[in-house]
Amino acid sequence: MKYTVMVNEGPYQHQSADSALQFVRAALAKGHEIFRVFFYHDGVNNGTRLAVPPKDDRLLQQEWSDLAKEHDLDLVICIAAAQRRGLMDADEAKRQGLDADNIIEGFRISGLGQLIEGSIQSDRTIVFGD
Amino acid sequence: MKYTVMVNEGPYQHQSADSALQFVRAALAKGHEIFRVFFYHDGVNNGTRLAVPPKDDRLLQQEWSDLAKEHDLDLVICIAAAQRRGLMDADEAKRQGLDADNIIEGFRISGLGQLIEGSIQSDRTIVFGD
Amino acid sequence: MAMLHIVNKSPFERNAFKSCLDHAVAGDSILMIEDAAVGAVDGTVFADDLKAAMTDKSVYVLGGDLAARGMSEDRMIDGIKVVDYAGFVDLTADNDKTQSWV
Amino acid sequence: MAMLHIVNKSPFERNAFKSCLDHAVAGDSILMIEDAAVGAVDGTVFADDLKAAMTDKSVYVLGGDLAARGMSEDRMIDGIKVVDYAGFVDLTADNDKTQSWV
Amino acid sequence: MATKKFMYVNRKAPYGTVYALESLEVVLIAAAFEQDVSLAFIDDGVYQIAKGQNTDGIGMKNFSATYNALGDYEINKLYVEKESLEERGLTEDDLMPIMWEDEDDDWAEKPSIRIVSRAEMANVLADQDVHYSF
Amino acid sequence: MATKKFMYVNRKAPYGTVYALESLEVVLIAAAFEQDVSLAFIDDGVYQIAKGQNTDGIGMKNFSATYNALGDYEINKLYVEKESLEERGLTEDDLMPIMWEDEDDDWAEKPSIRIVSRAEMANVLADQDVHYSF
Question: Is the ipTM of this complex over 0.85?
């Protein structure tokens, strides 16, 4: 079965980001296809590479990044939500005249159409939020 | 009167960040002293400089930064919360071996003790959260 | 030693507002901001709870938050006072301490 | 065309769980995850609402979320089924669609 | 590709959180995909379409006029729950008169808002393919 | 400088949100400032100190043992609301037996948890100087 997963909260503040990650792992383990994971609202904050690995806890941003690499996942950050909150890739940062970017490997920034298209293409759309 | 204000949510997702900003402005206008604004939980995300000014909406991160400059405010981001969420200044980024930082002018990163000390020094502590 | 209780959650969505009413003591003040502003409207399923609290507590609403949600002041429960951010600041100064019911 | 309703809010804190029960139709399934897991416990002020819904709907709880909050499975309302994340995935596949009551 | 029924479930008040605004941004994008789009306003979501919203006092953008533009994008199924209104002391008169023009009926102006009971709302929700929750 | 009464108001379940964990981090730092520290567990906050918490199934850190360490920092006033327990089908037996050692009483182990009624909790809250809400 083909899934699009929507993640609407950032890492740590709400368990939603954890639940989404665990769901995606379990779906992959069962042989399902994750067509796309779309990060919206504060969910865009899952895609930063500037977080610091804690001594005794998970680093969610890195776990998403590693999972994307391992399974060739399409992790899409909404550009409108990202601009409000300060999540940038190198191209967008350059276009906006910013002096740095903070996206982690495995994520890409794109438009809301990617969410709709994902839901059209997929058998199921699952929303994780607050 | 002397105030310490605690901001526990990031920009946009919850109105708390707006309410805190409006409260601080109103307190300053009345001649009160803002001893410190302490950003905790997702509140640390108010301190990024990588957000993009929208065409038709407020840019909260810049408004905090401008207000700090105008009134010499002490805007403190909790280091533990910031490390989890990817909010970095140049020193901390260097110490952590990261290739970029994203803090905006007017904020500084420090420990939770700054919150307690603020509440001890101030006549009032006001919490804005979700 | 009166306390200002600041509530920012809709009484229809979360239990925070009800919990605030259950824990405020006589002489305290309650200020509704953000989504809590809709709690000021009369004729709701929450209005009686708030009216009961008003027998020995003062209740305020941030006018800007009420207006943002399309609720006009003439719909409010009698006795609720409307304040702006300056009035919000005054309430925090006039009471000895504040608690936010987030 | 059965639906899986996913609830992640405590029934004591927010109205989302109650709203879910009010909008699920016969034959639907309800899965409690995150803070909603505490709703599975019997003897609470919410238990009767959930039991009423169970007359024509199936109710599941994510075991890991129940255990995290210190609630053992033997305290659950009779008839609630415990699933892990793999079971969560199965529920989304077995139902035609899902709605999250965030 | 087959058309799917997309339902936007709005359960939160505007301005207190960003969900109402960013939900509307998805709805506007969705219009371009020629799917079957509906919006549901349940619980505090009914405040999103309350008339007379004025954000001058809180420094936030008033986006309520955008709901009036949805008809231009052929989005004209806005289901509003009667019980949710009643619990909040509201009636249909408290909502914006959101309209659309029916090109098959000589561009007659018709209301987009459909007041439904809680039981009817349950059936409306059950009849969709994709549910976005805000 | 005068000592202030600091109250940490905990009203949310653990793990579903970060507030319980990050609240505890503030409490531990606060211990160094030699203020008068109390914690209140109201509403879903009572789950924070439920015994038997096991997070193996959700991939998150189980921080509940930290509450047992609070006594070592001379933080031993944990007020728990009776009605909040009852509404959730819980009793004091469902809570961790959080203790502290009283150095003025030959290091006798004493319970840090004080079960209070809602009315008593209201008075406890009224008797503080600084309220941090989580």
Answer: yes
